[in-house]
Structures are given as structure tokens and as C-alpha cells.
Amino acid sequence: MGENGAGKSTLMKILAGAYIATSGEILIDGKPFNIKGPKDALAAGITLIYQEMQLAPNLTVAENIFLGSELSRGGLVQRKEMAAQAQAVIDRLGAHFKATDLVMKLTIAEQQQVEIGPRAAPQQPHSGDG
Q: Example GO molecular function term (predicted)?
């Protein structure tokens, strides 16, 4: 695909919004698109899954998908709602595991699908004062 140091990883990180381009132009569907961060990339349908997975193997798929963005109401984590939303994401991805499965029980390919989950989950504000 390219020699070491050719810029493949840098290009991917620019497209994913992890790095900011200092020159050149990004075109999406033939139109200039300025990616200033991960939210811009996600809005364009671009996400990067790193080789080194960032999953908590002892947690469920749903808990991993919402890790750091848990749905809560009245100070209580809404586990059933998180599981339902996570299962909808899993189904949309065409995966064949459950939101309640432990990540450590999944294959590597399935774990990579879980990595995609937070990017595909509905972005909802959460708060403890419900």
C-alpha cells in the first residue's frame, strides 16, 4: 500500500479528525470539506478504528458502547435503555451478538464491531438530574 513513512497513518488520522491538515484539500462527494476534529469527521461518516482496541473486556457490549457517556436519570444509570439502544446499533451493524454479552467472550472481529458502536450510537445528552 505504501512505504513506511509515506504518510498513510497521518492521512487516516487527518480524515478521522485526530490531526488537522496543514495543507491540501479534502473533497467529499466532490465538495471541499474542512475536518477540524472528530465530530466533523463523524458528521461526514468517517471514523477510524485503531488496531489497538480500547475495550473493557469484563464489561458488556452495551457498557462498552456507552462507557463515559452512560445514560442516566435521577442519578441512576439507565441500563435497560442503554442495552436497548446498544442492541439497535448492533442490529444496524448486522452483527450477531447481544448487547448483554461480555466483550471478553466475543471474537476479535466482533470486538472490532463493538469498537464501532459508540460512533454509531445516538448521541444524547445525559445528566444526573432527571
A: ATP binding
